[in-house]
Amino acid sequence: MNSISEDEHVFWKLRNIRDTYWEEYIATRPVYTPSFMSRIYTYHVEHLHTFDVAIDIGSGAGQAAAALASRFSTTIASDNDAASLAFMKYRLSHIPRNKLFYSLTSGEDVLQHHRPGSMDMVVAAECFPVMDMQYVLRNFHELLKPRGTMAIWVYGRAHFVKESATGPSTPDINCDQHATSSETALPYDNNMCQNLLDRIMDCNFRPIVSNNGPERQKSWKRAADSLASWLEDVEFDERQWCDVRRHKWNPHFEPAFFGQGACDFDIEPRSRVTATEICTEETDETFWVTEWNVEEVGRFVRASFPKPEDTKSDDQEMEKLFSDLRTAMGGSKIKRRLSWGVVLILASKKSPIR
Q1: What distance in Å separates the CA atoms of residue 266 and residue 259, rounded to the nearest whole number?
Q2: Cβ neighbours for 207, distance < 8 A, ≥ 6 positions apart
Q3: Among 82, 196, 328, 329, which residue carries the largest CB count within 10 Å?
């Protein structure tokens, strides 16, 4: 695996990770459902009618790239980590080679590898806050054709929801993850479970996020501030972008994987949203809903970040928290419903004035 120096600003690279990392990642991350992707495509058609070339920045395991490949003539899956690309090529080998291409590049240096004005759509799923956001946003603008679409979205930690959670008559369910326990679960307090999961996530991220050199701390703080802001700190130049739309699902959830308890710096949300932008939100605790037992929650925690195996952590605290969570969930085999807080930002590149 790739190694990185202590103060390297690009910190999302795989290094000495568990052999089961990608298996656990795929099993516990939400699937981008057709209704979610349709929202992006509908917006795109309002501005540009072509579906020629799309690029997915920070592809990771390739969930977004696979979805794009079903709609665009050509999709480019890009990542700054060679190990991630290798896994993605294996996982997406069923997609025809003339439909999906791979690029070893980051959002910061993407223009060194791809022509300006060559993309109908640029996507950054779940990775945008760990990049130099405003710099990368300018790169995205350069990559796009006039009237092309930029789509960025992030989701935070999973959230326990009430057993009686209601939503649309046809819930937006991750069908390949959804399961129903054969056991009869006792009534439980989803807020108590969530409080324990929040503490578990902070415990898991603390040795990664805190006690870093200045450059890595700066990167982590930028990411933490942006996630706590629901990406409202991302500023769009009205001379370059138009029809900026921000939509949140479940804004009452925490939007990040970790909170203040993981950080040795203050998290400071801020907003740069302008009056011309369209901001909407909805509460739907069936959105991307899944059901996990405590072991599956553990898999989600382990795969929440590619943490090197030699990372020092408080195993005793983690074991105690998981023991409490197991009890709060009703036992080892009981599955509980979890949903997600998500923010999606869509923007269209302005056409040049003639």
Answers
A1: 10
A2: 307, 311, 312, 313
A3: 329
| Total count of residues recorded for the chain | 354
Handedness of CA 187, 340, 34, 32 (dihedral sign): negative
Q: Name the amino acid, one letter, at 225.
A: D
For residues 55 and 143, is the Cβ–Cβ distance under 8 A? yes
pLDDT tier for residue 307 given thresholds of 50, 70 and 90: confident
How far is CA 103 from each of CA 12, 92, 153, 256, rounded to the nearest angstrom?
16, 14, 21, 28
pTM of the predicted model as reported, rounded to 2 decimal places = 0.89
The number of C-alpha atoms within 13 Å of 20 and in the hemisphere containing its C-beta is 9
- C-beta of residue 172 within 8 angstroms of C-beta of residue 225: no
Q: Is 187 left (phi over 0), alpha (psi -120 to 50) or beta?
A: beta
Give per-residue pLDDT as tens, 205-235. 999 999 888 888 999 999 999 999 999 999 9
